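Schema walk-through. Below, the input block comes first and the output block second. Nothing else is stored per chain. Lengths vary across the set, and this one has 301 residues.
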Amino acid sequence: MANAAADWDLFQSLHAVLQAGSFSGAARARGLTQPTLGRHIEALEQKLGGALFLRSPRGLQPTELALALAPHLDEMAATVGAALRDATGPADGSAGCVRLTASEVLAVEVLPPILKDFMDVHPDVEVELVVSNELEDLMRREADIAIRMARPTQSALVARRIGAIHFGFYATPGYVQRKGLPTDLDDLADGHTLIGFDRIDPKSIIDTIDIGRPINRDLFTFKTDNQLAQLAAVRAGLGVGATTHGLARREGLVQILPNAFSFQLEVWICMHESLKASRRMRLMSDHLAERLKAFVAENQP
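--- output ---
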């Protein structure tokens, strides 16, 4: 048993290096000194009979052995994290930890006041927020509750559809004063600064949007894959970009071609069915559902 515990400690250090990309970052994450973490990696290499990392001009590079172990270490870390959260409080109580995941824009622009109000009422609940546009794996308990912008597909999830939020093209009044209003989508694409994606994810919703021409990176003058950077660029008056009607109204933005361009995304709250018995999970899920319904209502055309 002692050997198993020691091996787990070594594997935790390996996972930390894979996550941080450096020994120094991994040591900080684990609360260890860098020499101690280095000894962990050396001991693990001896046990496994092969190198785990190579140093190159590009920095620390994981070997095929390390990359083969990475998904197993991710799953182990997710399992341990879920176990620790479950242990923070009894299932029938409101105290303990809840780990949420949400997209960048929701996490920064929408959730802070919602979570503040929840924690005011439930001060014994700790909240962990994973800010990511990736779909965190609820089956592996990488998160307890996910706010997703697409219908979930896993059958073991409890999912609630909150509604759909609507998007349009917007720009600042200052931009419109400088550049004028486009007359149609061709004028918008050819005569204005369009803000959009650099590398379009093939799994994105872009294929469902019809603007009469292909949507690819060549369409955009200002390109970034970070949605918060896109929104910031619109706010700065850099150009025309897509955002929700509610956020645009809050910022006093001007809608561009309202009758020619719009799309919507569904909002879902999901959690693993094994968490239904947890009172704090139900409390958080119910609170999110109530407040996000109000957010959806504000984001209608």
